[in-house]
Amino acid sequence: MRPEYEKIADLFGFVLPTGPKEGGKGRNLPKEGRDAAESAEIAASFLAEGNVAEAVRHYRRAIEQKGSEDPSLAMDLGAAHEFGDQLPAAVEQYRKALADESTATEARIGLSSVLRQEGRFREAIAGLEQALDAHPEDPFLWAKLAEMLREAGWPKRALQAIQRAVTLKPEEAYFHFWTGDLLLSMQRFEEALQSLRAAVELSPGDDHYLLLSGVAFWRLGRHSDAVKAVDFARQLDPDEPAYGALLTILRVEAELQPQSVGKPQREDLDDYAKEKVRRWLGLFGVPEDRIAR
Description:
The protein has helices at 5-12, 36-48, 52-66, 71-83, 87-98, 104-117, 121-134, 139-151, 155-168, 173-185, 189-202, 207-219, 223-236, 241-253, 263-267, 271-284. It is mostly helical.
């Protein structure tokens, strides 16, 4: 069953937009590229499918067909290597791209990503800050910096960075969601709810946005609203059994239903679903042993 979006809008107090967005269609590609551009396009399609080996092969073919060093292709090849956890090869290509002004910023981002994976956060952050010096109005760079700062253990600096991203691109739902998630971890629940409300308003069909909104409601003592938000999330993803179990536990905790009503449903969960419910209960601040009751 799909949720009634008007009810979601009513819970969060916003007006729904109208008009669906339509996506485009790709074109059929040959097995081998006839020139550098086509080889690069084939490589990108393989990378989108997760086939790193073929992506690398076609990017290398594109470089050979180009007949000269192309920083853009070096950047793409580096990204393919990074996607396949081939970090030294990725660094080699990113450094080639770094030497050209047209790809220097993107290369710094790539190198920062590799350094982050190696746990070298200060160097990684410094690289992103260099990229931001060149492009201070890029909201996605600010979001990347926020993610890295949070992972490095600097939540306050992360919050400043993601707030800059939100200011630059307020229509990006994920930025609001990410801000709300960070604020929840900082136990700033009222502010978190405001950010999550904005995320839901921009993307009311995302069940995870509604789930975290439920966390904020619950932490603020608004248990009935929390249950409504989680129920909307369940309706968006009815094949996720963990939502039903979570709802049962929350309703019992909020004294909205007797404990015995949902017990069989919880017992039917497999271990994976039970572990997911335990993680979610941790976000709500509800004891994890409730899953076993």
